[in-house]
User: Fold this.
Amino acid sequence: MKGLVLSGAKGWLAFCALAAVLMTAACGSGEGGSNPSSGELLIAAGFGLKPAVEEQAAAFEEETGAKVTLNFAVSRALLQQIEGGLPADVFIAPEPRDMEEARRKGLIIADTLEDWAVGRLALASSAKAGLALKELEQLTRPEVKQVVIANPETAAYGRAAEEALRSAGLWEQLRPKLVYGENMGQVMQYLQSGNVEAGLVALSMVIDGTAGLTYVVVNESLHQPIRHTVAVLKDTRNEELARRFVAFTRGPRGKAILEKYGFAPPREE
Assistant:
């Protein structure tokens, strides 16, 4: 069974309501004699990680019998939600700086903090616009009227996009064409609708071909590594299962899913 997915403002409210029900059920049943291989987990993860996290969650449910609920948002918003009482068990952060802030504020169990994967950036073109761009320099072509990226101030892939364009000497030239998405989900909506001709996106969002976009991988030497980290949250109500989920995402089956979506292993591996 695929994990339940919640995102956005309505998703946040529904997420809290669901969590309250789960907590009530847990308190009523008690912990004695419970099966550590089953239970409920609430996972907070970045939009750019969505396809891989969804598949990891489904595989974990299949292997353990647990139920996994997913909440996706930009990294900073997730941190704010966690600080505000989001009853999640695991945080998969697109931004290492947000995970580090969570660590400093005592929001995570420190010994569970791990590098999860390294993301890749892709240059995507709209099929509706009839384009199939092969290199960043082609973004300057007149038929490319708008280029969408995630907000560099709040999104890891947006920052990587800015770095890549600056490294290629294209940032100033392309600034009049740039459109900013609040998160990777919004960036994909712009592209898939045909409202923009091209964009820089998380490779994981386009690699399986279902998005209907053509793409090429951006040379990773043009930007800093896009590191993603994972940790169990301090207020988890199911620490054993949460630790098991983190281990699963970094184990053989979890890594195979990450590789499928274009993620590279952490540098030390």
